[in-house]
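Extended Data, record SpoVG family protein
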Amino acid sequence: MPRYRSNERDESNGVIYKDVCNPITAEFREELYTNILDAYARIKEPEKEETQMQDRTQGTKGSFEMPEFSVTVTPYEREGSNIKGLARYLFENSFIVNNINIVQGKEKIFVSMPSYKTKQVDEQGKPIYQDVCYPVTKDFREKLYNEIISNMRKQRIRATKRQEKVQRNIMAIPIKRRTKRRRPFDNSVIRVQGRPRLPLTEWRKQNGYGSRKNTYQ
């Protein structure tokens, strides 16, 4: 399946590559890979392939149903970047597409499907990017993109409410008054004016005081 180079490293400091899209069930994986290999094998028989394509087109015409899917969006904020979110969607609980960007344009937000850089350049000399996967019908594209952008806006609202709740909790914490702690009197030492601090027993000796018994004689 198509992969992209991530910024992560393994235990050996090697680059980790991740799938852009991939099946997540054994049944769908087997069905998908079998169909891909069958299509490749039919390349050598163009006449047979053309007949099969016509049969498939006539058989499916007017019977197309949009697949069920779910969307997951993660808000993304980085200074200087126009990417505002990362998304992925899951089809029929069988196939997942990652690495979808939600981009802030000049006028509105739009969805950018996963793509890779080709060796071609446009008229202005800029590299041309090719989508790895994308919707092929207008109706499904609008439905999918609208769901992604709607999910993105909901995530932003939730994040704003969480931040406001945190701020309210901070403001509700009472501020304790700071009082200067008084140092307890230390009866083991005494300060004599003009002299350094002396132990109490030494001060008594220097001032002619003896034991308690001698003091009261």
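Summary. DSSP finds five helices and eleven strands in the chain.
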